[in-house]
Amino acid sequence: MDIKDLFKDIKDYENKEIVLEGWVRNNRNQSNFGFIDFNDGTYFKSLQLVYDKELKDFDKISKIKVGSALRVKGTLVKSQGSGQSHEVKVSEVEVLGDCTDDYPIQPKRHTREFLREVAYLRPRTNLFNAVFRVRSVAAHAIHEYFQSHNYVYFHSPIITGADCEGSGQMFKLTTLDMDNLPLTEDKKVDYKKDLFGKKAYITGSGQLHGETFALAYKKIYTFGPTMRTENSNTKTHANEFWMIEPEIAFCDLNGIMDIEEEMLKYIVKYVMDKCPLEIDFFDQFVEKGLKDKLNKVLNSEFVRITHHDAITLLKEAKVDWEFTPEYGEDIAKEHEKYITEYFNGPVFITDWPKDIKAFYMKLNDDGKTVAAVDLEVPGAGELIGGSQREDDYDKLIQRMKEMNIPLENLDWYTNLRRFGGCYHGGFGLGFERLIMYLTGVDNIRDVIPYPRTPNNCDY
Amino acid sequence: MDIKDLFKDIKDYENKEIVLEGWVRNNRNQSNFGFIDFNDGTYFKSLQLVYDKELKDFDKISKIKVGSALRVKGTLVKSQGSGQSHEVKVSEVEVLGDCTDDYPIQPKRHTREFLREVAYLRPRTNLFNAVFRVRSVAAHAIHEYFQSHNYVYFHSPIITGADCEGSGQMFKLTTLDMDNLPLTEDKKVDYKKDLFGKKAYITGSGQLHGETFALAYKKIYTFGPTMRTENSNTKTHANEFWMIEPEIAFCDLNGIMDIEEEMLKYIVKYVMDKCPLEIDFFDQFVEKGLKDKLNKVLNSEFVRITHHDAITLLKEAKVDWEFTPEYGEDIAKEHEKYITEYFNGPVFITDWPKDIKAFYMKLNDDGKTVAAVDLEVPGAGELIGGSQREDDYDKLIQRMKEMNIPLENLDWYTNLRRFGGCYHGGFGLGFERLIMYLTGVDNIRDVIPYPRTPNNCDY
Fold this sequence. Notes:
The structure is a homodimer. Chain A is of the alpha+beta class. The first copy, chain A, contains 14 helices and 16 strands.
């Protein structure tokens, strides 16, 4: 049985014989008895196994190494000790898999940097076990939220022939032999010989495709991996990450903000309910005050402020800025920080200057700003970026021309405005950034099982 | 409000004024009244809107084109007609988005081939609306099943530096300018200049990585896109598809079969419960007898037979085979068909000849077969492939050498057998094949939103 299920109904198992399979986190013993910290991965806390001299295998058991896989038979009893409510008095132990002496995960403190080097073993430690379980539970919270609100989960394609994001920013994908590329007469690569018969890329977003399905199903969301080529070595960038991109027809910018706020609260509450031990652990060892922060999100109404008013606020602040805030320009990390601290909670900043935003965002009546919104949260900065989409065909085409977006490959996208178009919008939530926010872990490399960053593609 | 929610509690809305937003599927009218088939995408069936001459906008409404987006105000009333229980007596109509005359989706029968060419509009038809909703609901069923059984959802990496599958079968990924590749002194591509500083590929499976997490969490599953380079133009092959790969520690081959059977029944029941209208539609228009087939899956116990006994059965059959069944060899489509028809339901075929299976499968005591299992289902052939994994370090290494699998990049995989290894196994379920099975749709291109196949990478 799973240790998680044991703890769910632990009273039912008191004084009963149980059989468990799992791994040894620690094995401490004296001449007459010993304790094994036993974990099967289904539950955050380890279960204490107690074995004593009476067992004929006592000597063998006392030599079992950290990391070994065991099948254990014993009786669940109330614990005499102070660290746990229950423990297992062992009657039989079978070693299913031994562990060698060079096993890197020993019961002591390991740095996160070291554990990144043994990424395939780090989920066996408390921190990473908690991080990746929260990751799983948060993913399910997202599916639950959208499915229960009539959304259709849409699988946007990863491979694309349209280089609408600019091929410089996208991974190229090929089946050709790169050391012997077939060439055309004018000495260019002959992509006709490639699997798709043309140049192929990896998309950095499923949004445009998502819009096509939103205009059929009203509400859709994507949830999948995204690959981008940014050559950026920061704590918040990875070249492969997961993203959620909902898209909603008949929804304006205020509606988008309502959904973002409701969704985020739903996820936070779901994770706090399902992973209380993990959240306590993060609160104690990773980010002091994490629980307060999350509880405040649940109980606050998110502030909504225009980019213009945000700049005014920043200009009036008695702060010696590194980057001077300016109307019509982007805001810096220090500004985001100030704003979320000023309002002491999550803040929606709306109506951004059009020149720093994407071509598909709806132009406001002022002709200068677009109906875009960024959600800024204390401690993590921008968590979600969204917008109402341009639903006027002529304005969209004009904006695409101004921004040199190739029209010919995107007629399926622009046509959505000719075939029963409607006001609609959506947003993108970086999943890893969400997990960092939920756990307090400050490096994206520590919330993805196998991170891919520049010059780093191990495992 | 969503039409889905309206139908959920339809009695509550009788004779009440409602406001809906959605699209026109059809608009038929006579001189004094007219009907609009109205669909907002949240519900399979369209809602009938009735408008009559009394409305001052009657002429305008009667000219509204198929495909247009509307906001409608009206009163929900019991329908006089026979096609529906309720309809909306319209009081106001606002056209949010007109539709041009060249709109390809008209209220008539379109071929699936034609609709593939306008893939971005096909979810607006009954068939594809049903297919992609079932796809979404089935995806959620999978998450529900695994999450409720203590599994951790594991995101395996898509990009990899290890070419363990043989680089010939994998997509290569690069940020280099393919028309001006940097070269080393010996005129080979200088991958040191590429983003990851080495050759990078797209993985065709998350299983090996999944095992690393299964040996920490006991039970994990992946669910993500998979890209393979097969140059194969069949109804069941695509170069991008989604796959589910669960991996379970402390689980033998019988345990794997138990899980596969329980999971498949869970998904079938979930989809039949949540999408009754869609399943009825498929049963009536796509695959006659689909509902019977699915109900039989729910109520049957899957047969378990060894590969050896299956070959005996085939040899004894009075059938003029195209491919003669042989012990020690693979079985053909015609054989799969015979076996599922013979047993009249899903069949597990176990203990396959080692030479036709992968290196990581556990060698049986006979030294000739491996603890592998394929699930064959009537009408679709192989739906799931799984195995117990080789947990003996020496046997695994020997098998890898025999099959020329490079050891040096996979030490993290083989080490799992040294660091508390245990008996474990898993399986792979092709998501599109499942959707084809659930809907009766027989071409993989029609169950993926934007299919990628050789020489086809549009949208």
